[in-house]
């Protein structure tokens, strides 16, 4: 569904305050009870399936042991996630790389360059180039936005534990200047609020702004992350978060972030492992499982200073949506943003509920006819690497961005060019097949 916002609101509009933030303990109790029931239901389903399969195949002890060994080996066989589309590093710092995915034949294309800011939550940035068949980068290029770059957030180390929000914003600015001084900015999840802050401080550098699954109003919607953060900070302030960073030697451990994500939706983890056992002889299912697990279970630490800043200013105090956020003495007011705005949310996103994303529409000064809101069917990670979102939801958004990004339309196309680009973007991702999906958070 695509919606054009009717009226942008001013800064005096208060942020939405739903039940998960107004009564966090009650929300968390109900949420955890529901999850526990779902985990038990998944075990019951899997046990029934295994029993029926054992009887139908007349599996003996050796067969069951072999099956279990294959399952165990598949769970333990992890590999480092990789970039799949050809690219080169054109700018580098100890905490980030700028990767250029522009093909040689397209370097002189007269189209505004595009910069992708991936999520940054303890995982590899390769989620935007998840696999050869599921790549956000490929879809962007196929839509005609051929000059495309992505920032890669590097794992934090002892020497980068003091990296701050200022350093990240400076890296974005250096990247855009190197790309020509103005860019289409696409921010996924945490990359989205980072993009919004940058656009607030440097609106002249942002040609269009796209936020996908990005928390802008951190307290809106029914969010377990917002509820748990509010509950913890009300009771202990930042002490629990500082303790985690101290245990990580000055950085937020990626393993702790992963554990938190699994704890938010444990039924997905249980279902993924049980479905692997059920489909252990299905090579296609095992491969899909492996590709996802390689990315999901490969974690990287986050700079401690940066992590504590975002917890205090965004997760806890929710200063971005209120217009009260300051960075190095400068006010990061989203009302300064006037560029075309594209918002994409997942209908069942439990990490970033749609209300957190769509709150951006009321905070910017973009003309209402240039604000697009779209809701994809699915959850959080599917927005960035899911075949359905890449085939159905990203192409129309990217097609509109392309129309904003060329000097003039082709007078001979009579609209055919846009249709062709949409088809090309769709073909950039493999078609969903009638096979069991790997459950993802």
Question: Helix and strand layout, with pairings?
Answer:
Layout: E1 2-4, H1 19-22, H2 24-57, H3 61-76, E2 88-93, E3 96-100, E4 114-117, H4 136-142, E5 148-153, H5 165-179, E6 183-188, H6 190-201, E7 206-212, H7 224-236, H8 239-247, E8 251-252, H9 254-264, H10 266-278, H11 283-296, E9 302-303, H12 304-316, H13 319-322, E10 326-327, E11 330-331, E12 341-346, H14 354-358, H15 360-363, E13 371-376, H16 382-385, H17 387-405, H18 416-427
Parallel strand pairs: 4-5, 4-6, 6-7, 7-12, 12-13
Antiparallel strand pairs: 1-13, 2-3, 3-5, 8-9, 10-11
Helix pairs in contact: 2-7, 2-10, 4-18, 8-12, 9-10, 17-18
Structure description:
The two termini are 22 Å apart. A nine-stranded mixed β-sheet has the order 1-13-12-7-6-4-5-3-2, sandwiched between helices. It contains 18 helices and 13 strands. The model is unreliable at 1-19 (pLDDT under 50). Helix content is 47%, strand content 13%. The chain has one domain (2-23, 79-254, 299-406, 414-427): 3-Layer(aba) Sandwich (Rossmann fold), CATH 3.40.50. The protein has helices spanning 19-22, 24-57, 61-76, 136-142, 165-179, 190-201, 224-236, 239-247, 254-264, 266-278, 283-296, 304-316, 319-322, 354-358, 360-363, 382-385, 387-405, 416-427, and strands at 2-4, 88-93, 96-100, 114-117, 148-153, 183-188, 206-212, 251-252, 302-303, 326-327, 330-331, 341-346, 371-376. The chain is α/β, with parallel strands linked by helices and 441 residues long. InterPro entries: AB_hydrolase_fold (IPR029058), DUF3141 (IPR024501), PHA/PHB_synthase (IPR051321). Residues 1-25, 405-441 are annotated as: Disordered. This is DUF3141 domain-containing protein. Pfam families: DUF3141.
């Amino acid at each position: 569904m695509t919606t054009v916002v009717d009226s942008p609101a001013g800064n005096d509009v208060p942020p939405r305050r739903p039940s998960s933030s107004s009564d966090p303990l009650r929300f968390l109790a109900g949420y955890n009870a529901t999850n526990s029931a779902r985990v038990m239901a998944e075990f019951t389903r899997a046990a029934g399936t295994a029993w029926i399969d054992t009887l139908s195949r007349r599996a003996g002890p050796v067969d069951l042991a072999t099956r279990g060994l294959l399952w165990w080996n598949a769970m333990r066989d992890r590999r480092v996630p990789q970039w799949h589309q050809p690219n080169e590093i054109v700018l580098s710092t100890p905490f980030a790389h700028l990767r250029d995915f522009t093909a040689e034949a397209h370097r002189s294309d007269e189209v505004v360059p595009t910069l992708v800011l991936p999520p940054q939550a303890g995982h590899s940035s390769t989620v935007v180039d998840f696999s050869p068949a599921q790549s956000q980068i490929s879809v962007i290029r196929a839509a005609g936005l051929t000059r495309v770059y992505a920032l890669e957030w590097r794992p934090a180390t002892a020497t980068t534990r003091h990296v701050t929000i200022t350093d990240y914003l400076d890296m974005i600015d250096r990247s855009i200047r190197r790309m020509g001084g103005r860019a289409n900015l696409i921010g996924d999840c945490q990359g989205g609020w980072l993009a919004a802050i940058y656009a607030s401080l440097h609106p002249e550098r942002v040609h269009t702004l796209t936020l996908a699954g990005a928390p802008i109003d951190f307290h809106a919607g029914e969010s377990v992350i917002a509820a748990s953060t509010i509950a913890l900070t009300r009771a202990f302030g930042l002490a629990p978060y500082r303790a985690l960073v101290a245990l990580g030697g000055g950085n937020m451990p990626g393993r702790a972030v992963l554990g938190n994500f699994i704890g938010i939706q444990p039924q997905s983890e249980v279902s993924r492992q049980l479905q692997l056992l059920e489909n252990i002889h299905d090579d296609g299912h095992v491969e899909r499982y492996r590709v996802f697990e390689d990315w999901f279970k490969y974690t990287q630490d986050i700079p401690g200073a940066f992590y504590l800043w975002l917890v205090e200013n965004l997760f806890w105090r929710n200063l971005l949506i209120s217009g009260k956020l300051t960075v190095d003495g400068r006010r990061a007011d989203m009302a300064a943003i006037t560029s075309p705005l594209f918002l994409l949310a997942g209908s069942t996103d439990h990490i970033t509920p749609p209300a957190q994303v769509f709150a951006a529409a009321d905070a910017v000064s973009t003309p209402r006819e240039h604000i697009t809101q779209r809701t994809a069917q699915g959850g959080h990670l599917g927005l960035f690497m899911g075949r359905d979102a890449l085939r159905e939801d990203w192409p129309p958004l990217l097609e509109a961005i392309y129309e904003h990004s060329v000097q003039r339309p082709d007078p001979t196309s009579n609209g055919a060019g846009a249709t062709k680009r949409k088809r090309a973007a769709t073909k950039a991702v493999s078609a969903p097949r009638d096979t069991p999906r790997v459950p993802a958070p």
